[in-house]
Design goal:
By secondary structure, the chain is α/β, with parallel strands linked by helices. It is 34% helix and 25% strand. Helix 1 packs across helix 6 and helix 5 crosses helix 6.
Length: 203
Amino acid sequence: MLVLAVFVSGRGSNFLSIQRAIAEHRLDARIAVVISNRRDATALESAAALGIPARSFAGVAEAQQVAWMRDTLAEAGVNFIALAGYMKLLPGEIVAAYRHRITNIHPALLPSFGGTGMYGHHVHEAVLSSGAKVSGATVHLVDEEYDRGQIVAQRCVPVLPHDSVESLAARVLEIEHQIYPEALHLFAEDRVEVRGNRTIILS
Ligand code: GRF
């Protein structure tokens, strides 16, 4: 069973989609703790309302943050980390301690439209101005750089002629809510094997 820490910075709709999948028995997991760099993240309120421990390291000195994360993850018995709208790089020590056990969701089809500065509306703006006819969402493993780890799952949506950033973002978000729980389910079933730059999904 996955014992999850979900890292968030804002709204938390992906966190809620993961929690819903667990409640509906589509995902064999338990969210042990929700962690945020921001004290005011709406996701923390949603977690607390669901009785899920919600913690922020906003008041923790930079030099103490790795130790705080290690302790918080260990105390909660976490064996897998899901980043869901988390706007910071995870410290290298945490990436190393949970190698191949950390995922992120990105609102475009990586390896395009990712990397530093590619978050939120910037991603959809870049997709629209590229003229691409499809966008989508990507779940990938997390390494030491933004949006670079091995891809685990992707799904496409069309880019429509009259799309705005908002309409495209909404279409992508809908499939984010489908593929993140599905991708985590693959890990829960131990079906993700990492081979070099790729993942192999075992049937
Ligand atoms: C999502 O679009 C996700 O792909 C990106 O940040 C957004 C977070 O949304 N990484 P939410 O906080 O899960 O609602």
